[in-house]
Design brief:
It is built from 10 helices and 12 strands. The mean pLDDT is 90. Helix 1 crosses helix 5, helix 2 runs parallel beside helix 3 and helix 7 crosses helix 8. The relative contact order is 0.09. The chain is α/β, with parallel strands linked by helices and 288 residues long.
């Protein structure tokens, strides 16, 4: 039996928390585990933990309001679906809540167990659909890695952050050596696809969670290493070579560390591409 999904209620009224808790006990479908946060800061802190399937958020939180909390949470990267609870009945509040990123809106005086359960289910289903659409738009279907467009966007964002907080940044372009022979000699495209998936997993295993691993196209991959100079990037690339050899394959890797001479993200990628070409020309299975 699956564990109940966690729902966070942020409301400064204990009485309202009891009403919501009683409503949860009368749900006829899925069971949820309710956690109550009684104020703005506590609620924001709980949301940032990222452990909740959904959040019920009161519009009025003492001197603050739920709209401000929702906007701050969104700015911090929180993507938990939120259902607004309010005593207000004006369409303006409704519109503001949706504009701020809420998934649904309930008037407290009209809350029943059925209405609350329906609203939660709607928010969860809509969130799942939007998450899948976002994944489809940013992920490579075969390997699950970031696709080229999303990878380039993240690299541009990293360069913008560097303008504010100078730190090293290195780019790796990676080519699977003699990939066409895999398709020709090992049973066609299925064998090639299996190798690409294995290489993708191997590359991810050699970097940190905050690093970006990208399916650049065909049998090429790219990796952005934030905070890594050329020496650290070379060490990561050497680990990638060893991981590929363990799979019975080899890689050619070009490494470039960001410098003002590159101009922009495209310039950095071009430098890594030149290094990749040098690795191939030198005999493959190596880093340049």
């Amino acid at each position: 039996m699956n564990a109940p999904r966690k729902v966070l209620l942020i409301d400064d009224e204990r009485g309202q928390a009891r009403i919501v808790e009683a409503s949860f006990a009368k749900f006829v479908g899925e069971r949820f585990e309710l956690r109550w946060a009684s104020g703005y800061e506590e609620g924001l802190g709980e949301l940032r933990r990222g452990v909740y399937a959904a959040c019920l958020l009161d519009y009025q939180l003492g001197e603050n309001d739920g709209l401000a909390l929702l906007r701050e949470a969104m700015a911090l990267g929180v993507r938990t679906p939120v259902v607004f609870l309010t005593s207000e009945t004006s369409g303006e509040v409704d519109a503001q809540a949706m504009e701020a990123g809420a998934f649904d809106y309930l008037v407290k005086s009209e809350i029943t167990p059925r209405a609350l359960e329906r609203s939660l289910r709607y928010a969860l289903k809509l969130h799942a659909t939007m998450t899948e659409l976002m994944r489809s738009a940013t992920r490579d279907m075969l390997t699950g890695l970031l696709n080229r467009r999303e990878g380039l966007r993240l690299l541009e964002n990293a360069l913008e952050r560097m303008a504010r907080e100078p730190r090293p940044l290195s780019a790796l372009l990676i080519d699977v050596d003699h990939f066409k022979l895999v398709n020709d000699r090992r049973g066609g495209h299925a064998a090639g696809d299996a190798l690409l998936v294995a290489v993708a997993h191997a590359l991810q295993a050699q970097v940190r969670a905050q690093d970006a691993v990208v399916r650049w196209g065909g049998d090429e991959f790219a990796v952005w290493l934030a905070g890594a100079d050329a020496a650290a990037a070379r060490q990561a690339a050497d680990r990638m070579l060893a991981a590929a050899r363990a799979l019975g394959s080899t890689l050619s890797i070009g490494v470039a560390q960001w410098g003002p001479e590159h101009g922009d993200a495209g310039g950095l990628v071009a430098a890594a591409d030149r290094a990749l070409y040098a690795a191939k020309e030198a005999g493959r299975d190596r880093v340049a």
